[in-house]
Amino acid sequence: MTKLYKEAYPDESNPNFALESAQISIKDGADTNEIKLELEKLIANGFPGGAQLIDIVSERKQERQFALQMQIFVYGFLIIIGTIGSLNIINTVQTNLLLRRKEIGLLQAVGMTLGQVRRMASAEGVWFGVIGGFWGIGLGAAISYLLYKKINDVQGIPFEFPWGGALIASACAIAVGLLSVQSPLRRMNRASLIDRLREE
To answer: Which of 72, 107, 161, 181 could form a disulfide with 112 if both were Cys (CB 3.0 to 4.6 A apart)?
Structure first.
């Protein structure tokens, strides 16, 4: 730095300043390892006042890798939880319909059309999704706020509930409930109405 200062201001006397920090920018494609080794040698040979080399590029790379790992972990966890929740909705809706085959058969025997049965079953599937979404958003908001209160004492971050993600998850739950009724309805339609009425 003294050499550079003298070249920039040759008419002035020797500079009298203390260098606290310096940022070194490297062109794209340059050999960073060679530059890093030279700087480490300079520090090891007794840099005046002591010095510490901080490789910002490596730190940013590690931060991006850590952020990517956290995203993979969080989204993988969400996929697993979402799959378990979807299977629970499917199992509940399908079991409910299959156990009521005789009841649905009686409704058809007294004049209920296939379209009306389908609309009734679809409404039940949607209702299961609505209930799941309601309790999911309610409990999720409560748990998120409790976690926020614990973290806020340390970091002081504002509370922001992810309403967009919560609404998307609720829409997915409704869609799963609606789609889960289709398979039991097809199975009931293939079975004879008389056989369903004879079931115990």
So the answer is: 107
Q: 29 with 109, same domain?
A: no
| Size of the chain in residues | 200
Distance CA 149, CA 162 (A): 16
Structural domain includes residue 163: yes
Domain range for 193: 66-198
Task: Say which residues have a Cβ less than 8 Å from residue 183's Cβ, sequence separation at least 6.
Answer: 94
DSSP string, 139-180: HHHHHHHHHHHHHHHHH-PPP---HHHHHHHHHHHHHHHHHH
What is the rounded distance in angstroms from the CA atom of residue 38 to the CA atom of residue 183? 70
Number of compact structural domains in the chain: 2
Considering the domain architecture, whether residues 24 and 90 belong to the same structural domain is answered as no
- Residue 125: pLDDT over 70: yes
Based on the fold, state whether residues 82 and 153 are members of the same structural domain.
yes
Rounded to 5°, angle at Cα 193 from 188 and 195: 95
CA dihedral 103→105→110→112, nearest 10 degrees, is 100
pLDDT by residue (tens digit) across 175-185?
A: 888 888 888 77
Residue 54 lies in a domain: no
